[in-house]
Prior knowledge:
The chain is of the alpha+beta class. Helices cover about 45% and strands about 10% of the residues.
Amino acid sequence: MPENIADGSGLAANQALAKRLQIQGTPAFIVMPVQGANAGNVSFIGGAAELSTLQAAYDKARGN
Length: 64
């Protein structure tokens, strides 16, 4: 078993990141391109979202 699973450090690291990003619940989506991410092509969706919202974030990340 990987050490970070056994000792909970992986969960603690995820919780710390969520706190820094001010994510307070699930689900939360950060949609961005693999390369060249910037403020103009990254979307944050906090909470449940309609398919059209997710599609728009995907399109934005692809530059469409």
